Amino acid sequence: MRSWAKRMLDGDIIQGHNPDMNDKPMLIAEEPGTGAVNLRHLRAWVTVVDEGSVTAGARRLGVSQPALSQQLRALEEFFGNRLLERLRRGVQPTPLGRALLGDARGALAAADRLTRQARTIAGFDVGVLEVATLPTLVDSMLIEPLRRWQSEHPQVAIQLHEFALQATMNESVAMGVGDLAIGVRPPNWSGPVVSLGWEQFVVVLPPNDPLAGRAGAVALRDLADRSWILYEPSQGLADYVATACALAGFRPRKAVLTSQVQAAVRLAAAGLGAVLVPSANVPEQLAHTARTLEPPVAWELTVFARSALSAPAAAFVELLSRGPMASLPAHAVVLPGG
Questions:
Q1: CA atoms of 196 and 206, how far apart (whole Å)
Q2: CB of 227 within 8 A of CB of 274?
Q3: Tens-place pLDDT, residues 14-56
Q4: pTM score of the predicted model
Q5: Residue 216 and residue 127: Cα distance in Å, rounded?
Q6: Considering only CA atoms, which of 202, 201, 191 is closest in space to residue 317?
Q7: Is the omega angle on the peptide bond into residue 25 within 30 degrees of 0, that is, cis?
Q8: Going from the N-terminus, what domains does the chain have, and what CATH number goes with each?
Q9: Residue 287 — φ and ψ, nearest 5°?
Q10: Nearest to 180 by CA among 169, 164, 188
């Protein structure tokens, strides 16, 4: 049986009833007379779930709280049951809401894809190119390409969808979020994938570390007894650092926990502990503090998409590919892509 979201997009769930709910007439408040589930209502509900409260959802959507509450009530009336449970602080999905949430996200992603395709079907006339990526990569590799894109294609805006975790980004892109994604090569990906080359991780040691003054690469396993600047679990690099250290045979001892990559490098340079970081995220003025690793630790950066790239997406990939691409270092430890 097709999901309710698929049938909604196909036009089956219209005219005031849902075939799966005993043909019970459903009313919708915002558009009298249509009796149809509304994508605006779905987006409002999903936003409230993501933000954790109606107040925060209204702020993100730029609408008043009463207007948002009315949309939520209309959606609950359509489904004949509550989708949100009101808590002392915020809201959470009811069992029915949790069951429908994945299909709701899929319906919104499908609608967004249709909009993007309509805007780009004729090429570069007007539109928005949506790029999913990681905040770490925005800082390290996207600033200059975005500047060049704006210069070469001013009629096509860029909308960044930044994900803290690569695995979350992979799932979202598979559901239709973004025209393309930039991140570590995703495992078992069925859509197009274009390699952008390999990036090595480096370690920044405190100035007073016994190895700080020596030339040459450092073995990660030789740093097992150090105190470390680590990333909060919500920071995507946390899993990569844990994996690299585990493959070197140790679990890093925490000195400071941060969510900011630049802050982590500066904390290490200030003497508070060692930090593992992608080489491109080390500020130029602190490059002298960074040491390469032996064996090298690296990840492969790629562009990937759910389906064939649109003309603007392909042009953006070409722009990203203009620079030199680093090859995989010999004997490197390869970090997985989520």
A1: 32
A2: yes
A3: 333 333 333 333 323 334 334 567 788 898 999 999 999 999 9
A4: 0.68
A5: 49
A6: 191
A7: no
A8: 4-116 (1.10.10.10), 126-197+301-326 (3.40.190.10), 198-298 (3.40.190.10)
A9: -60, -30
A10: 169
